[in-house]
């Protein structure tokens, strides 16, 4: 019986148990599983398996351009337009105006003078832009007053100075709307009343 328990000397040396080979195979399997999972996750995150057809998804709550016939269209640039500023042929769209009800009054920079202006805006987009203006009127009023306070009386006495202020106000209102609502949509700002004293 003792002979069966004890392997012969030639057998022990010539027959490997396979422990090292099993460890190598297991290690390779773990590397393949982890690497494959990472690659699949990266591929999915990049959109390859997400069913993305290359088109930008349109937010259903995003304001739409209004054509002159009253129909609406999405304002999403195609893949070849990305990065280039899109110039809309404004003659194809219906312009809407909105009067901001309360006037803006602010002291002017480096003087005892003040300006009081009433504003209206124009947009080629649907009523959601006007709704965004109403929803965020306090933030817009604050931004407009800050821009007014930066103005110099002498600049505001010229037509060019007033036109530059209009552009600054339209740009600033768009920035506020972009920050608060995710979309600007203001084309121009107009003075419906303008007093400097």
From TrEMBL:
It is a single-pass membrane protein. GO terms for cellular component: bacterial-type flagellum basal body; plasma membrane. Pfam families: FliL. Residues 51-87 are annotated as: Disordered. Residues 52-67 have a biased composition (Basic and acidic residues). It comes from the Bacteria. GO terms for biological process: bacterial-type flagellum-dependent swarming motility; chemotaxis. Keywords: Cell inner membrane, Cell membrane, Cell projection, Chemotaxis, Cilium, Flagellar rotation, Flagellum, Membrane, Transmembrane, Transmembrane helix. The chain crosses the membrane at residues 24-46. InterPro entries: FliL. Controls the rotational direction of flagella during chemotaxis. Belongs to the FliL family. This is Flagellar protein FliL.
């Amino acid at each position: 019986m003792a002979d069966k328990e004890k392997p012969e000397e030639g057998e022990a040396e010539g027959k490997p148990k396979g422990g090292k080979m099993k460890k190598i195979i297991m290690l390779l399997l773990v590397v393949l599983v982890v690497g494959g999972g990472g690659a699949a996750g990266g591929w999915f995150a990049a959109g390859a398996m997400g069913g993305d057809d290359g088109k930008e998804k349109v937010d259903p709550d995003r304001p739409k351009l209004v054509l002159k016939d009253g129909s609406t269209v999405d304002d999403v640039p195609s893949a070849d337009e990305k990065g280039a500023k899109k110039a809309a042929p404004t003659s194809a769209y219906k312009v809407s105006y909105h009067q901001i009800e309360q006037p803006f009054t602010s002291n002017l920079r480096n003087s005892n003078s003040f300006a009081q202006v009433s504003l209206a805006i124009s947009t080629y987009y649907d009523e959601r832009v006007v709704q965004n203006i109403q929803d965020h009127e306090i933030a817009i009023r604050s931004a407009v007053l800050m821009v007014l306070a930066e103005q110099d009386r002498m600049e505001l006495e010229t037509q060019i100075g007033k036109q530059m202020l209009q552009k600054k106000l339209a740009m600033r209102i768009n920035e506020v709307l972009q920050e608060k609502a995710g979309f600007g949509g203001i084309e121009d700002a107009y003075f419906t009343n303008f007093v400097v004293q």
